[in-house]
């Protein structure tokens, strides 16, 4: 038999969660606020999961995070996902020099950078990096 987690919210907590549900920046944050609000109304986790289109485990994890950290525990934590192979802080100068040496030859730039940086990456990764740098600094663009 599963353990039933009961939530009781004061008016301040309920108002903060309601504001997060209505005006939250990301969909996942709004969904988690809604889970907590529904759970505080006494609804079982399986009904909340069915209503919101997720699994019961997600609802329970969200409740546990809320009990441990409050509303600050509901957004997605930073640092998740795959780390970038090329970084603008460390690799930008070497990329700039390699492009100056081999303009219009991205394959040669990639192979030169792989040797210098000791990292393996695809031509597509290099193109994406250059595109993000151009968007950030307008350094490689026409304007």
Topology overview:
Blueprint: H1 11-23, H2 27-40, H3 45-52, H4 56-69, H5 92-101, H6 106-117, H7 123-137
Helix pairs in contact: 1-2, 2-3, 2-4, 3-4, 5-6
What does the model show?
The protein has 143 residues and is mainly alpha-helical. The chain has two domains: 11-73, no CATH class; 92-137. Helices cover 60% and strands 0% of the residues. The chain contains seven helices and no strands. It has helices at residues 11-23, 27-40, 45-52, 56-69, 92-101, 106-117, 123-137. It starts with 10 loop residues before the first helix and ends in a 6-residue tail after the last helix. The mean pLDDT is 89.
Mean pLDDT: 89
Order of helices and strands: HHHHHHH
Shape: elongated
The radius of gyration over CA amounts to: 24 Å
Major sheet: none
Tally of helical segments: 7
Low-confidence stretches: none
Beta-sheet strand percentage?
A: under 5%
- The helical percent reads 55-70%
Q: Give the tally of β-strands.
A: 0
- The CA-CA distance between the termini, in Å, is 65 Å
Tell me the number of structural domains: 2
Q: Structural class, please?
A: mainly alpha
Short account of what is shown:
With 143 residues, the chain is an all-alpha fold. It has helices at residues 11-23, 27-40, 45-52, 56-69, 92-101, 106-117, 123-137. The protein has 7 helices and no strands.
């Amino acid at each position: 038999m599963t353990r039933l987690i009961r939530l009781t919210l004061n008016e301040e907590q309920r108002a903060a969660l309601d504001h997060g549900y209505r005006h939250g920046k990301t969909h996942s944050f709004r969904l988690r606020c809604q889970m907590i609000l529904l759970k505080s109304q006494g609804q079982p986790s399986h009904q909340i999961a069915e209503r919101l289109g997720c699994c019961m485990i997600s609802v329970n994890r969200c409740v546990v995070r809320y009990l441990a950290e409050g509303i600050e525990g509901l957004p997605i934590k930073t640092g998740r996902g795959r780390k970038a192979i090329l970084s603008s802080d460390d690799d930008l100068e070497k990329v700039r020099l390699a492009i100056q040496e081999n303009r219009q030859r991205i394959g040669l730039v990639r192979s030169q950078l792989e040797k210098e940086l000791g990292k393996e990456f695809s031509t597509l990764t290099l193109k994406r990096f250059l595109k993000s740098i151009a968007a950030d600094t307008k350094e490689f663009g026409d304007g």
